[in-house]
Amino acid sequence: MQEFVIVGGGQCGARAALALRDHGFAGRITLIGEERHLPYERPPLSKEHLMSSEGIEPPFIVSSAVLAERSIEMMTGDTAVILERESRSVELASGRRVAYDKLLLATGSSPRRLPSLEGMEHVFYLRTHDDAQRLSQRLVPGGHLAIIGAGFIGLELATAARQRGLEVTVIEAQPRILMRAVPEAIASRVHALHESHGVRILCGTSAGRIAAHAAGITLSLNEGEVLDATTLVVGIGAEPRCELAQQAGLSVENGIAVNAALQTSDPAIYAAGDCCSFPYGDKRIRLEAWRNAQDQGAHASANMLGAEKPYEIIPWFWSDQYDFSLQIAGLANEATSTITRQIDEEAVILFHLADDHRILAASGWGRGNRIARDIKVAEMLIAQRARPAPDALSSAAVSLKSLLSRS
Amino acid sequence: MSAWIKACGIDDIDNEDVIRFDHEGKTFAIYRSPDDSFYATDGMCSHEKVHLADGLVMDNIIECPKHNGRFDYRTGEARGAPVCVNLRIYRTKVEDGSVYLGLE
Lengths: 407, 104
Description:
The complex is a heterodimer of chains A (407) and B (104).
Chain A: E1 3-7, H1 11-22, E2 28-32, H2 64-69, E3 72-75, E4 80-84, E5 89-92, E6 97-99, E7 102-105, E8 109-111, E9 123-124, H3 129-138, E10 144-148, H4 152-163, E11 167-171, H5 184-196, E12 200-202, E13 209-213, E14 216-220, E15 226-229, E16 231-234, E17 238-240, H6 243-247, E18 256-257, E19 269-271, E20 276-280, E21 283-285, H7 290-304, E22 316-321, E23 324-330, E24 337-342, E25 348-353, E26 359-367, H8 372-383, H9 390-394
Parallel strand pairs in A: 1-2, 1-7, 2-3, 7-19, 9-16, 10-11, 10-16, 11-12, 18-20
Antiparallel strand pairs in A: 4-5, 5-6, 8-17, 13-14, 14-15, 20-21, 22-23, 23-26, 24-25, 25-26
Chain B: E1 3-9, E2 17-23, E3 26-32, E4 38-42, E5 56-58, E6 61-63, E7 70-72, E8 77-78, E9 89-95, E10 98-103
Antiparallel strand pairs in B: 1-10, 2-3, 3-4, 4-9, 5-6, 6-7, 7-8, 9-10
């Protein structure tokens, strides 16, 4: 019997395991998850799961009944520590050894840490359900939450903390919020929304000296200000989990390097999700996004069964801030011009175009899910390498759908 | 007992589109298909509490605005991850230029 092993029990690993069965794989599937929980979805952890101090269950992707029914052997609370490519086996922290014919690394990413804060009380990171539950206990009215990093995690957390009645200060070293992933025209709206909800955002500021005391934490900002907070969260990005791949001598390049078929430098080993870097156009990219984790896991599993299809997607992600949401499709890095489409007073879509007017990316911001369907159409236009007339993109009276070529 | 509830005018929905319709604390999604037939489903995605009417209709598929869960709105059938629970569907009829929703 063929044995497939998946290292990583998150969105990516779990979806890959289920997809193997969907594709008709009849061999053995072993899914190794570091956490004590069955696989669950992470997006709610920085959003609705912070809204109550009551203990809640993780939002599970599969139950143990489904795992049993689909003959997926799940090992929770165990970590793959050694990958031996010659014997095709993985050794776990518990001492167990699992042999594989094919292996999928879906090891995810972990929060970038500030070494100077190791072991310090009142300091939190947010990645897992248990992290979210611990943090949620600290979000009590009247407290003061300081957040280092104005990325998605930091700002979603700020949203939750304001709604729970805390004073919130966000400290960002860059000159503006969401510097890495969001165009300035939308970031400034997000900034204004947070300020209107009473969040204090300090850009171009570094946290300087940080000290813990019994009641909380003191930050001596480089501006000279001293900030007293009850809790500090560090949200300064994530790093791919490549330890196992590195130890086994697989090629690593800002993540476990895979080819278009999601295969690593060892053809028996695939990688997918946050941990891998894959070809996108003439570049190599790595995504930390829910949909990519899910799609790439499923895609890798088809290729483990011999489909050998290239992974060709348009990157897409979303974030919720208060009753607004943001969605971005594509990558805007190489865009040379931007066209604005004003949907209504509060909702806007930016199209990021190449020199030849091809749409490379679209960023949307609006109340509720107002911009969702237009971003979806934009994603299809990007995939079609469409070059619509700029007037058609900027005029909200022209249906975006009408710009698609339909077969 | 079944009741017909007037939901909207036929011209309130574009061809190949969807609108939200709320009735007595429940929310529904009413669709107009490319061949100008009308369909109705529960208004919320079966994956998370998100209004489907904010999603995109392409042919006979509605895609959830948040997590890209896809359903055939004619049958309610879920079309792959992350959704696996079908949508409840409702009967519709058109009379005098209005779309009616059939509630059991």
